[in-house]
Specification:
39% helix; 8-stranded parallel β-barrel; 10 helices
Length: 326
């Protein structure tokens, strides 16, 4: 696992050390140092891609210099269903480690567009199945949690893909997203629409058509190149160029194609051009988080076993992609 080399001018502990060996005071200093070093893109992860043990996931993330946590599953509970005690425990763990919440990876609009049933047609990551009519109650809960965790970013989707996209479906999606954006504008949060291959909007091109129809600062793109690949698009440059003007958050997973379908792998070892992506983001002045969502679990291993090499690789890719930062 990764080690830190302490800075004798700022840290009380001298010499090589692992993150859990650093005092709380020095952890906070280290977090501030890393944030100052990274004046543009910053490393984050969806914590349950490491472990459902939230505190442990944060410690692992910190070993690799991560300064942002994206919340989805904590202690076997989806972010939308956290109770107050769990939320307080999570906030305390974040504060102790000097890590901020960069986004709530919510299940909003992971439901059917045309059915009144609470159906599932893809990965839910511990979230309850909810009907279309329940979505705005869910959004209200998510915004309350976003306020509590001091983030403005909430990831959203565009309904289970039950058939091929057509003009009627696209218009209904635009209207549904616009209704949610009205709530976001009133409550000062940003809805980050993720391209998801299990939903109607899976590619960069599809995402661009939806967000361009809703010119609001409270609607942005959570760009996921891995999902674009799974949806049949070339993620870079094609998908990226379609959405680059609205990107506020980035997910990273890598894959190789087997029989036309993605097989997830360590970031940097697949076919997605992340060097091109990160260089282009840097050149565009992107200053947000790049969040690991690896999905890769080695045979006989654990999510942490898959996430550790991906965190190390992504950290290096971020450094390489912004070498000209003063």
């Amino acid at each position: 696992s990764a080690t830190f080399c302490s800075n004798p001018t700022s840290l009380t502990h001298q010499g090589p050390l692992r993150y859990h060996e650093i005092s709380v005071r020095d952890r906070l200093r280290l977090r501030a140092h890393l944030l100052c070093e990274r004046e543009t893109m910053k490393l984050a992860a969806i914590t349950d891609e490491i472990s459902q043990d939230f505190e442990h996931a944060l410690d692992v993330l910190s070993e690799y210099g991560g300064t942002g946590a994206e919340l989805r599953g904590l202690w076997g509970t989806n972010i939308a269903d956290l109770d107050q005690d769990q939320a307080e425990r999570a906030k305390k763990a974040l504060k102790q480690r000097g890590i901020e919440v960069c986004c709530l990876a919510s299940p909003f609009y992971k439901c059917d567009l045309y059915s009144d049933e609470a159906a599932v047609a893809g990965r839910m990551h511990l979230a309850q199945a909810r009907k279309y009519d329940d979505q705005f109650e869910l959004l209200d809960r998510l915004i309350t949690l976003a306020d509590f965790f001091e983030t403005r970013m909430i990831r959203i989707f565009t309904f289970w893909r039950r058939q091929e996209m057509n003009a009627e479906i696209e218009q209904r999606i635009i209207e549904a997203v616009a209704s949610a954006v009205e709530v976001a504008e009133r409550r000062n949060v940003v809805l980050c629409l993720e391209n998801e291959h299990a939903c109607y909007v899976g590619t960069g091109a599809e995402t661009a058509r939806v967000v361009s129809a809703i010119p609001s600062e409270c609607l942005a793109v959570c760009w996921d190149p891995g999902n674009a690949l799974a949806a049949g698009e070339v993620p870079y440059p094609d998908g990226y160029l379609a959405v680059r003007d609205r990107i506020a958050h980035v997910h990273v997973k890598d894959a190789v194609l087997k029989d036309g379908k993605p097989e997830w792998c360590v970031v940097g070892s697949g076919i997605i051009d992340y060097r091109g992506h990160l260089s282009a983001l840097h050149d565009a002045g992107y200053k947000g988080y790049v969040s690991l969502e690896t999905h890769y679990i080695p045979q006989g291993g654990t999510p942490e076993d898959g996430s550790r090499p991906s965190l190390a690789s992504l950290d290096q890719l971020l450094k390489d992609g912004q070498k000209d930062v003063p």
